[in-house]
Structure prediction request, 110 residues.
Amino acid sequence: MKKPSGITNIETKVSVPATLLENHVNSMHHAYNPVKKQAAIQAQPFPGNFENINWCAEQLLVNGSIEIYFDGGNKHRTCCLIIPVSAGFLVVCTKGKEAGYKFTWSSSLS
Prediction:
């Protein structure tokens, strides 16, 4: 039996359900968290008008898998190892002039 010659590809099959998340966040009551316009500063680095942005952050548990592909020792054979994963994500939704919160950014907590 030949040893595998190495990993050829790694794919992450984890997705954040953005539409479900937006519906959940929009159905909840959230405190008003605007990024406020700063008072006039003498040496203001960013000229122009600023818009208030409401934001909300949630922790979300996401399930998925990691697929590791490697050469099976034969030129025509590729093997795949599928590993189930469950990871926590910090997700941020923002609301500017739109009617509801929109999924803006996420980061894995693992």
